[in-house]
């Protein structure tokens, strides 16, 4: 059967909405534009670009992505509230093809405790809000929040009302990650069979990963008749995350014998998308993550290696190059010039602005002076670090640490704070503690450290360290990443990056409060 003749499954990416809602995963406008551009290029059918009513930043991001998108449909989320729907409509109207995605809860537990409304009242809300959206745009998606804990009878009535009011896609999410595959499949089969106008809409799955079943449930929903999968890069999302885009796409492609669907995403962009989302959110990808983890194609055991050398398919069900993994290569040394560095960045998929390029090149030369072998991974870590510090108002300039058995350890740190250089010394219980205390001396703050994690980018004792720091301040969480051959410098950069993100989030909220008050 040719791909064209197969049932097409719409890939709906919600990295920029459900993914970004994950605590600590917020992205700047520039970062969202980069992610959206890559999703658009890789063939994602629908990009959920944000929740326009949530903040001015969200609204601007959806407008800008809508203006720039070349191929994908751009969706904006809205609650079942007229002002939300209008705001989403205003944002997606710039897209060649825009979509309003509106949702309301349908489960008894949400109706009783969250909405304090009865079933008839919610049905009326569905009729009114979906038709309001449909009056603004032809492409309307309606979601039944907590569908998997809603009775089939009531869910059928809600779906019928939404389609009657003009919804063209019906999404039945497993909001709390509670379903198991066979019941999720059955839910779609029953709803599609029960609802008299079900042939007038595309059904969609949206699964959270609380029980580690999001991808399995998504594929089961498709077996039950759904033809849209909502997912995120790296499975980013609240709590345990959403179904991972790379996993659903590669499952369909690799097991097309039993999952006979077409899907338009080009998998060779997946590794890049995974790295980009990890870099802009500072959420590390677990080493053994399917498809995009560092070890996903590493065959360590002797038996496996022997089989692989004789015939790759003995142990390999997918080829690494299919998902955009390149063989590790020794790239350049200290004699490599600007042009060679630029070519390498292009090959790795980076297109830096002038300032970022000059700074990345300076850091590359510095790295090549200190490190014997510079690999692609080194350049990626350095460039991602550089991308994440662009536009930050606080930067690490220099750090000297006195460490060893004598104690107490001491750090002398100079930072650029809004264009002014500040230097402080601090002691600590270990060199990392001393470094973080020096940062606190320069920028006093209440944020507390929630995570400190170090990993080596490549092998060898001269490898760059990639450090992740997560900070919490008054319920707000921000994650920062830093890379350097000096673990303490990388630690300082990661801490400062998280602080900058907290500051941007606070500023964003102040702007929204001002806008609401005015
Ligand atoms: O998980 C969920 O129910 C959602 C809806 C807003 C679609 O994210
Ligand atoms: Zn969700």
Could you explain how this protein is built, in words?
The chain has helices at residues 15-19, 29-42, 56-68, 82-92, 108-115, 119-136, 152-164, 181-194, 214-223, 245-254, 270-281, 302-310, 338-348, 354-370, 376-389, 431-442, 487-517, and strands at residues 7-8, 10-13, 46-50, 73-79, 98-105, 140-145, 169-174, 202-207, 228-231, 261-262, 330-332, 374-375, 394-402, 409-417, 420-428, 448-456, 465-473, 476-484. It has 518 residues and is α/β, with parallel strands linked by helices. The protein is built from 17 helices and 18 strands. The model is unreliable at 1-5 (pLDDT under 50). The longest helix is centred in the C-terminal third of the chain and has 31 residues, at 487-517. Residues 18, 173, 175, 206, 208 line the site of zinc ion.
């Amino acid at each position: 059967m040719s791909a064209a003749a197969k049932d097409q499954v719409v890939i709906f990416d919600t990295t920029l909405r459900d993914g970004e809602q994950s605590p600590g995963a917020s992205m700047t406008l520039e970062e969202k534009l980069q992610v959206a551009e890559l999703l658009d290029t890789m063939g994602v059918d629908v990009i959920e670009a944000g929740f326009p009513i949530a903040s001015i930043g969200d609204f601007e991001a959806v407008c800008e992505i809508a203006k720039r998108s070349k191929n994908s449909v751009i969706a904006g989320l809205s609650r079942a509230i007229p002002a939300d729907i209008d705001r989403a409509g205003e944002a997606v109207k710039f897209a060649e093809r825009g979509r309003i995605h509106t949702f309301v809860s349908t489960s008894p537990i949400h109706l009783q405790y969250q909405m304090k409304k009865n079933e008839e009242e919610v049905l009326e809300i569905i009729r009114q809000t979906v038709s309001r959206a449909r009056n603004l745009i032809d492409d309307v998606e309606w979601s039944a929040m907590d569908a998997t804990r809603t009775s089939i009878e009531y869910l059928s009535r809600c779906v019928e009302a939404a389609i009657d009011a003009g919804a063209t896609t019906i999404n039945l999410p497993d909001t709390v990650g509670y379903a198991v595959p066979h019941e999720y499949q059955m839910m779609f089969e029953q709803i599609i069979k029960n609802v008299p106008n079900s042939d007038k809409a595309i059904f969609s799955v949206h699964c959270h990963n609380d029980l580690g079943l999001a991808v399995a449930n998504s594929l089961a929903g498709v077996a039950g008749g759904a033809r849209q999968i909502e997912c995120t890069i790296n499975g980013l999302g609240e709590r345990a995350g959403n179904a991972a885009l790379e996993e659903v796409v590669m499952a369909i492609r690799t097991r097309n014998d039993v999952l006979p669907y077409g899907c338009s995403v080009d998998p060779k962009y997946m590794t890049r998308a995974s790295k980009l989302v990890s870099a802009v959110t500072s959420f590390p990808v677990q080493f053994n993550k399917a498809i995009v983890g560092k070890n996903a194609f590493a065959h360590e055991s002797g038996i496996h290696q022997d089989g692989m050398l004789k015939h790759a398919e003995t142990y390999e069900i997918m080829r690494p190059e299919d998902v955009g993994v390149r063989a590790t290569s020794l790239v350049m040394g200290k004699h490599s010039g600007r042009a060679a560095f630029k070519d390498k960045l292009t090959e790795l998929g980076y297109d830096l602005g002038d300032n970022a390029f000059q700074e990345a090149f300076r850091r590359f030369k510095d790295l090549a002076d200190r490190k014997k072998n510079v690999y692609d991974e080194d350049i990626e870590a350095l460039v991602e670090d550089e991308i994440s510090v662009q536009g930050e108002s606080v930067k690490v300039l220099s750090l000297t640490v006195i460490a060893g058995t004598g104690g107490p350890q001491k750090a002398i740190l100079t930072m650029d704070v809004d264009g002014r250089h500040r230097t402080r010394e601090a002691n600590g219980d270990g060199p990392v503690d001393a470094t973080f205390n020096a940062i606190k001396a320069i920028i006093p703050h209440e944020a507390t450290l929630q995570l400190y994690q170090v990993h080596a980018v490549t092998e060898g004792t001269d490898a760059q360290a990639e450090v992740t720091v997560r900070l919490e301040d008054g319920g707000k969480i921000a994650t920062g990443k830093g890379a350097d051959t000096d673990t303490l410098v990388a630690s300082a950069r990661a801490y400062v990056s998280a602080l900058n993100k907290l500051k941007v989030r606070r500023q964003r909220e102040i702007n929204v409060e001002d806008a609401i008050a005015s």
